Each structure stands twice: as structure tokens, then as C-alpha cells.
Amino acid sequence: MNGHHHHHHHGHSHETEVYHRAFGLGIALNVGFVLTESYFGWQSHSLALLADAGHNFSDVLGLILAWVGMWMARLRPDDRHTYGWQRASIMAALVNALLLLVVMGSMAWEAVHRFSSPAVVQGQTMMWVAAAGVLLNGLTAWLFMAGGRHDLNIRGAFLHMAGDALVSLGVVVSGGVYLWTGWFWLDPVMSLVIASLVVVGTWGLFSQSLHLSFDGVPHNVRLADVRSYLRTLPGVAAIHDLHVWGMSSAETALTVHLVMPAGHPGDDFLVEISEELHDRFDIDHATVQVEIGNGDHPCRLEMHAGE
Questions:
Q1: For the chain, what are the domain ranges?
Q2: How is domain 218-304 classified at the architecture level of CATH?
Q3: What is the pLDDT of residues 34-92, one digit of tens each?
Q4: SS3 at position 222
Q5: What is the pTM of this model?
Q6: 11-213 — its CATH code?
Q7: What is the pLDDT of residue 1?
Q8: Bridge-partner residues for 69, per DSSP?
């Protein structure tokens, strides 16, 4: 007797609405700040300030992408997309990371050229505008702090905003030191430091989102532990076709075949497995199929399994 069971857990709609409002507020605040920072960066001839404005603009685009990805992930499955559009949140995180890397590469290139043609900057203007950025970006990061622990898409938004707050703090320091010393080369040096910090902070987001895009096992799941748990279940002689992947930036799916020679243990057993997979490994959508290991009718998938 063969059987299968699937079970999934959904996040609270209230939390989703909270983050939708957070995205809307964060985007509005950052659009206003980008316009302000760009104007004063141009007026003060500060590459560090203009670079920070460019970075903040890329974050506005990133927040929009993350917001759209979050909205698309809520679309219900249909006959053409049986898992819905949850992968959109992973793609948003990946595009967001790529955008940041490109912007920081362009900024670093311009900073290198600035060494050969330094410009006089207005350090006081740099300091005041960047100080406003510390407060604004810090507030926006706070809006996404809690959700970043469970959702790669929201974590990307949090990391970018928190990074922006630190970058703006660096510009404040740069402006202060410039007023004290008059070092023209400090502005492009700070730009390179900013670019390096952002690239380091973004690389984890890029690698994780790229990994999930190819159905990789989420970083918070140790497949060996999942395999060990399933193999030690009572009545299970073997397992095969174990697959774990990220359905979205926040939800994980699993499929597996359990070989149980004594027969199907009943639905309660499968429900218990699904609950344990969720509680132990944070797996939200588990599909489990039971086989009795009949040699006359071997599972076609098992013949190709490498487990």
C-alpha cells in the first residue's frame, strides 16, 4: 500500500501587512533623501556624498524589487504555476544584490580617477547631509530588523539600510577629518572604503540568493540531519529521493519517499513527521510518500536514487 501526504505552514498575514507598510514608508523616505543628497553632493563637489546618493538610489530600487517580490509571493497557485509565484522573492533578492555590486563597482572606478584630479569639497555640507542619512537609514533598517531573521528578501532590505547608515556615518567622519586636515584625497579614499564595505555586506546576499535560484538547500537546513531524522523513524527501512529547496526567500519545501515494509502507518504518523520537520528544521511544505518496498513493483524513482 502506497500513500503520500503533504503539509505546509503559512506565515501570519498581519506580519505581511506590517512589512508591506514598512516597504512603502522606507521607499518614500529614501526617495526624498536621495534627491536631497544628490543636490548637496553636486553643490559641495563631494564624490563620497554623490556615491552615497547613488548607493541609496540603488537601495530604493532594491526596496521596490523586494516589495514587488513579496507581493508576488502571495499570489495563489494556479494550473500554470502550481507553487504560485513564491520564487519571485528569491529573484528580487538576487537582482537586488547584482544591482548593488554594479553600482559599487562604478563608484570605485570613479574614485580611482578622482585621485588624479582631486576637487575641493565642502566638508560641512557633507557632514550635515550624511548625518541625516544616518538617522533615516537607521530608521528604515529598524523597520526590517525582525523579519530579516527569517526571510532572505527582507534580510536584504535590512542589510542594505543598516549598511547605508554605517556608510553615511563614514561620510560624516570623512567630512570632519577633511575640515581639520584639508586632505583632498580623503574623499575618494572614503568612497573606496564605502564600496568595499558594501560589496562585503552584499556578497552573502548574492551567494545565498544565487544558490536558492538553482534549488539549493537553504543555508539554515543541514540535509545530513534531515536525512538522519527520517532514517531513524520507527518502521522506516530506507529513504530515497530526498529533496529540499527554497520555495521562496522565506519558505522551504521537502519531498521524500519512505520505504516502510510493514505497511502504511496512517495519516497521523505523516502529520507528526510534517510537524517535526517544521519545528526542527524550519521546513514549511513537506510532501512524504510511503512505499512498502515491493520487489515485484519497484519504485521507478528509487532505481535512479543515489541515496
A1: 11-213, 218-304
A2: 2-Layer Sandwich (3.30)
A3: 888 788 777 777 666 676 677 677 778 778 887 888 787 777 878 888 778 888 888 88
A4: coil
A5: 0.72
A6: 1.20.1510.10
A7: 42
A8: none
